[in-house]
Amino acid sequence: MVDQVSTSVGESTFDILKHLGLTVDFLDDQTCCGQPAFNSGFRSEARPVAARFIKLFEQVNGPIVVPSGSCAAMVRNYYGDLFRDDPQMAERAKQVGERLFELTEFISRYFGVDAITGKLNDSATYHKCCHLLREIGMNEEPIEMLSNIDGLKMTTLERADVCCGFGGAFSVKMSDISSAILDEKLDFIEATGANIVIAADSGCVFQMQGGLRRRGSSVQVVHIAEVLAKSLRNVISTESAE
Amino acid sequence: MKPLTLNFRNKAAETMGDKQVQQSLEHVYTGFFKGRLEAAGDTPEWEELRDKGKAIKDHTIAHLDYYLGMLADNVEKNGGSVYFAENADEARQHIIDLAHARNIKTIIKSKSMVSEEMALAESLNDEGFETVETDLGEYIIQLAGETPYHLIAPAVHKSRLEVAELLDDNYKSGDRVPDATELTMMAREKLRGVFARADMSVTGVNFAVAESGSIALVTNEGNGRMSTTVPRVHVAVMGMEKIVPSIQDLSTMLRILIRSATGQRISTYVTMVNGARASDEEEGPEEFHLVIMNNGRQNLLADPQLRESLNCIRCGACLNACPVYRKVGGHAYGWVYPGPIGSIVTPVMTGLKDAHNLPAASSLCGACLDACPVKINIPRMLLELRHRTAEGSADTAERTSSKAERGIWKLWRAGMMGRKRFDLGARLSWLLLRPMAKNGWLKKTPPPISRWTSTRDFPIMASSSLRSKLSKRTKKAKS
Amino acid sequence: MTDREKFISNVTASLGRSTVLVPSDESGTDSTAIFEDAATAKSHADRAMSYASERSTELIDRMANMAAVNGWKVHRAGNPEDAADLIADISEQKGAKSVLRSTHEVLTEIGVDSAVTNTGATLGVTEHSGSIDANKIEQAKSDAFTADIGITGVDYAIAETGTVVLHPRSGLSRLVSLAPPTHIAVLRPNEVLDSLTELFAMERNDYLSGDLAGSMNLISGPSKTADIEGTTVTGIHGPLEVHLIILENR
């Protein structure tokens, strides 16, 4: 999704990691972790794709950072089940999983929630994406990170930890239920009066943005990587202007 | 109860279109869900209690045969009788026979989901016994001729007006709608008379203690106490998984059950009975009967991937936490057990083929696992059942995926197995969709994405992939 | 094979075994208390009792607070006369014509009988003598359903949850605390346990030593329901009003 649709999330992730002083590599051959098929029950289609992912990332050392709690959860928490009849592959999956982190998790764990001190004049609210919150365990950390951005006024979103209704294929297969859940979310978003909604998974971003656009709302939904990167760029451009 | 799981989509749509029910379902969040959160927050050792509860249930279920034997021995030692029912028909017939043999006139029923599996109240009424549900919610549902909407709040979808129409004999359309207190007092008056004349009771079992042959009942209303006090015959019905080994285990289980169910530290009444009345008592039943039912639970037990679902203590916390339940309501699930846990046990107990929409109806948000007092990994099992309906992995007869669906995922895999194909696929979709897009978003799309765009705009692919953008950057940096 | 044997062997097979396996504490983490022997159970129970008397002042205070949260109307009485006056007041307030009481010692101590009868109400005791026959049973039931107030002591109380624990027996009927619209429970110091853990430790010890009561009721406030639009209403089947009178140490 990041690779083909929201490429700026990827670019932003790249920029943030570089800003933190890291050497960043993008494995050109990568495609997908296999979650869409896995979540739809098609494990025999998901398995070779997941195996491909494992083999690819076994070839490099160091931490693997993904700007999605959902992908991170797939690799770390569900590959074991996907390969439960193949202990060898399950073990390899575990090894890769131990090196794999979601972006905000990686930053808060190794650099601290105050590592990104950018600047962005806007008003925002934060939606807690389910998998980042419950599978990866990032709750208040991303919000703390955002509150360190100079000029960014954060407003609390009511029921921020309730699902937006995306759920991958669920959003298409059970479109009416997905939309009903989304509607409630959008009401709470609009009630905050914020200009932007920040979320940490592209799927949720599409769901909420797609719904807001259909409502004719001007509220923008942006990925947390984009916000962090943009806030950093603002600092750099101010500095160079001086 | 006959399963109606095939109707999931229709029933869900109907509920989502019903403003009054949607409003009632708000209480599931603001009342129960928030109550549980507060109760858990007020309990410093909450996570330890959950782990302990899980350990007790894991151990019990792993030795269920042993503890069933122990329970039966001890109930009999206490003077009670035990009936083992393989299915709902056997259990129902046994209770009907008991009532006939004792010339019973009036039966009071306390809340029991297991009795719903047998459609017991209805059957007993058909047999000529005056049979009255005594939990207020169940009573309302019985008057309405419906089935429970929620594990612990059977009438949560009913408005005060609907209740007034059912309970208030003098209510006429247009009258002032009585408030909850007035309605509750009307029910009190009606049910008092029933309690006084009841000669048999049927209750559920919250926990059955194997070592002492005791059963524990948890109620706020007091109907559980009436049922174990007034009638001369007490019949308790339980699913075979409802056992704890030791009396001491009750302290853990009651704490997590009650806090998770209603957010209370304790319910108003917890009653423990060890059979019929003691020889020096004037009150309490002369006879105690325990009916232990299987009814398809062995399929869960025999399945290592799903066995964990038998740890469920029926608190309803996963329903309250579930964004899907809070939209589609309890009746959409089509059988006794709604919500996330229902989406696991209903398909296995009634047939996955008809119930294939239940495990599909989840965004996999994980709120159910967070809420579960015994940490049942519901999302993992939903995924397992989806695997079975998609590919027939456990039984080919359970495969309900369409040919088109299978084709799409095959194609998806082909696209994901090589970077060139991956890019090509994305570029092709971009070329196809670009003419219809405005500012990178689509208002209309061809099937199956049309289901998305019926309510939301859909994002179009980027003009080029992240890979090519990043590689362009690298080149730029080098030159 | 009997139904029971068939049923259980089915379960055994579902567990992937051919015979019933006697469990042991395989995890070593005492997942369930069933592996605790009688001596351990006794030491838990003894500790619960000694804790209850050592910390009675603190436990009484916690009990009073939690009971109030649950909807008990909590009264503190400095001496038996005050307790009797409180009961007489409630009785008059309610316009009680008939009052039932248990045989808890504390009720005799505070002179409940004269306190009640002085208000003009009749007083019955839920105790019986001689053999129990159908007439007596009907009479007891109808007495309880027509009584205006039921008065009991407590067998234990639980500070964690604001709970009164009663073990029905001759002298303490099941209905005296359930059927009348008002229930008054009189609590003495040293009767308050810390938590459910202590209560069930004592119950388990009673069971292992052959003294388990036939039944037990934990009562935590007035009968309640929230089945109509989530609005909490007190007094659906049991008492609408419950009073807890705490008789302080003299």
Would you spell out the secondary-structure blueprint of this structure?
The complex is a heterotrimer of chains A (242), B (479) and C (250).
Chain A: H1 7-19, H2 35-39, H3 43-58, E1 64-66, H4 69-82, H5 87-98, E2 100-102, H6 103-110, E3 119-126, H7 130-136, H8 141-147, E4 150-155, H9 170-173, H10 175-192, E5 196-199, H11 202-215, E6 220-223, H12 224-241
Parallel strand pairs in A: 1-2, 3-4, 3-5, 5-6
Helix pairs in contact in A: 1-12, 3-5, 4-5, 4-7, 10-11
Chain B: H1 8-16, H2 19-41, H3 46-62, H4 64-77, E1 81-85, H5 88-101, E2 106-109, H6 113-117, H7 120-126, E3 130-133, H8 136-144, H9 160-167, H10 180-197, E4 200-203, E5 207-209, E6 214-219, H11 223-227, E7 233-239, E8 243-244, H12 249-262, E9 269-273, E10 287-293, H13 297-301, H14 317-321, H15 325-328, H16 339-350, H17 357-360, H18 367-371, H19 378-391, H20 403-416, H21 419-433, E11 441-442, H22 450-453, E12 458-459, H23 466-478
Parallel strand pairs in B: 1-10, 2-3, 2-4, 4-7, 5-8, 7-10
Antiparallel strand pairs in B: 5-6, 6-9, 11-12
Chain C: H1 3-14, H2 38-54, H3 56-70, E1 73-77, H4 80-93, E2 98-101, H5 105-109, H6 112-117, E3 122-125, H7 134-146, E4 149-152, E5 156-158, E6 163-166, E7 182-187, E8 192-193, H8 196-208, E9 215-219, E10 224-225, E11 233-234, E12 241-247
Parallel strand pairs in C: 1-12, 2-3, 2-4, 4-7, 5-8, 7-12
Antiparallel strand pairs in C: 5-6, 6-9, 10-11
The H-and-E topology of chain C, N to C, reads as: HHHEHEHHEHEEEEEHEEEE
Radius of gyration over C-alpha positions of chain B, nearest whole angstrom: 26 Å
Low-confidence stretches of chain C: none
Q: What's the pLDDT, averaged over the residues of chain B?
A: 95
Give the N-to-C terminal Cα separation of chain C.
64 Å
Sheet with most strands: strand arrangement of chain B? 1-10-7-4-2-3
Question: What's the domain count of chain C?
Answer: 1
- Structural class call of chain C reads alpha/beta
Amount of beta strand of chain C: 15-25%
Estimated structural class of chain B: alpha/beta
Q: Largest interface here, residues on each chain?
A: B-C, 95 and 86 residues
CATH superfamily of one domain in chain B: NagB/RpiA/CoA transferase-like
Quick one: CATH class of one domain in chain B?
Alpha Beta
CATH topology of one domain in chain B: Rossmann fold
- Tell me the name of the CATH homologous superfamily of chain C: NagB/RpiA/CoA transferase-like
Low-confidence stretches of chain B: none
